[in-house]
Design a protein that fits this description.
alpha/beta; eight-stranded mixed β-sheet; Rossmann fold; 361 residues; 11 helices; 8 strands
Length: 361
Amino acid sequence: MQTPIQQTPLSSSDIFQYNSEAMHKFEKQMARFFGREYQRWRGNKTAPEAYGVSSFEGNIATEVTRKKAIGECYDDEHGYAIYRAFLDRDYMAYTTGYYGADAEEAMASTVSLEKSQEQKYDLIIERAQIEDGHHVLDLGCGFGGLSKYLLNKFPNLTITGINPSEVQTGHIKRLIRYHDRNFEGERFRLIQKYIDDIDIGGEELPLNSVDRIVSIGFIEHVTNLDLLFQKLAPILRPGGKCLHHCIVSIDTIPRLLAADDTRIGDYFPGGHIWPFDELPRHNTHLRFAERWFLNGMNYWRTLDEWHKRFWRGVDELYPRSIQNVEQLRYWASYFSLCKAMFIPNEGNSYGNGHFLFERAR
C-alpha cells in the first residue's frame, strides 16, 4: 500500500507542508530576497530595451512559449487533475482573484476563492465597459472562466474564445458536450489556435467584428506587444475597446523582464513581467485610454488558497498524477515562490495591471 505522502519526511527533501514552520521560514527568506530586489530598483523607469529586452521586436511569442501553450512543456494527461485540485471549482481561473483595493482590504476579506474570481470578472466588466449584446473576444480564454461568467450574466452577449492549449480547450469542450447551460446555443465559439496562426480578416476573425477584446493572464506570454496590438486592431468595431489584465512590476526590474533568466522560467518558460509603464507605450495601433494597478496581496491571497487546496488534495494526486517527489517539489516550490514575490512592500511593488485601449480610428 502506498504510504500517504503527507506522512513522509518531506522537509528533508525541501518540500514543506502547507502552513508548516518550514514553509513559513522558506517564504520569509524568499520574500526578503525579492524585497531587496524591489528596493534596489525602486523608482527605475528605464525602458526594457536598455536591458536587452524589447516589446517592439520579434514574434508575438517565442517558440518556447508557443510549445508551453499547446501543452508540450507539461504532462497533459496528469496536469488537468492537478489544476482541478487547486483552482476554484466554478471557473477554474488560473489568475488572481480580487479581494480588495489595497493590502489591508485584501487581507481582511472573508470571501471565498470562487467569489474573489467573480469580483475580478465584475471589475473587468466595469473597466472594459462590457454591455449585453456585445461580441467579446476572450483572448487566451484558459479554462473558459470569463466566458462562462459573461454568458451567464448577459443573455444577449456572444463570445469567441481563443486558446491553443489541449488541456484547457478540452475542459471547455467537455462543458459544451455535457450541456453546461452557460455554453448552450450559438453564443460561444472556440478557436483552438494561437493568435499568430489566425488569419485576421478571414472567417475566424473578420474585420470590424468584435466590440470588446479581453485578455487575462495572456500578456505575460507575449514578447512583441506592438505586433500583437497591430493584429488585434482591425478586429475591433468603431468604438471598440480592449482590456488586458496581466502581472506587472511598478518599476523596471531587469531580472523579471525575461523569465528564462530566473527560477520563474521553470514555470513560465519564455514569459515576461512587463513594467507598469510598458503597455501605455504601445499607443499606435490601439489608443491607450486608462490603466489601474491591482495590489499584489490579491494574488498572495489567491496563491495561498491554491497552495492550501493543493496540499489538501495531495494524497489523491500522488502517485496517480504527481508521480514522484521531484514533481511534488516542483509544485510546492511554485506556490511558495510566487507568494514571496507578491508580498514585499505590502503588494505595492508587484501585482497586476489593467490596461484599457480603444480603437484608434
